[in-house]
Amino acid sequence: MSQPIFIYGAGGFAREVAWLIDCDRNAQFKVVGFIDDSGKKLEHWPDHRPVMSYEKARALAPEAGVVVSIAHPVVRRRISERLQADKVNQPVVTHHALELSERVVLGEGCVLCPGSRLTVDIIFGVGVHINLNCTIGHDVVIGDFCTLAPGVHVSGCVSIGKNVFIGTGASILNGTFDKPLTVGDGCVIAAGACLTKSAEAHTLYAGVPAIAKKQL
Q1: Whole-model pTM above 0.85?
Q2: Confidence band (pLDDT; 50, 70, 90) for 45?
Q3: What superfamily in CATH does domain 3-91 come from?
Q4: Averaged pLDDT, 161-183
């Protein structure tokens, strides 16, 4: 029997995650609805399943798991911490059209979308989002609540901190075994950027090659 599950969020990515679960060949989960803090849905909500408040969802199906499908790392972390405090299951969700080796470690609440490829000796923290068509090379560590937007490429020997957002089409070049390329906590790497050197925490980087633009 499939486990009931709510999608926390009522935007575009939330609907994509619901689709990801719907087409699971193993039918491990069944989406029963969406959670939005306001309890409201978009004016032209295209999904047939209801949008409701967190309190209503918990009352309706207290045994259901929850997948947090909000792109902003800090907001996602806050919601996940609330779920952890309430002892709500946050399962890992992956698509069958995903390539990853057995030497990939996934933290609670990770979401991995189709078309992505992950090689070997990769460690994810809690609540990491890997969007469509990303590639991640060997010996990479990605911290809690990071977001990789569609088409991000991370080369080998890279260490990414917590709450990092990497925009669509960005590339992170490789470090070395003795000196990984590092991306500090809270960094934002702009869409299309090419990061060739380590990035300081809480800083926006953009361009090719990427340079620091401002403190966040």
Answers
A1: yes
A2: confident
A3: NAD(P)-binding Rossmann-like Domain (3.40.50.720)
A4: 97
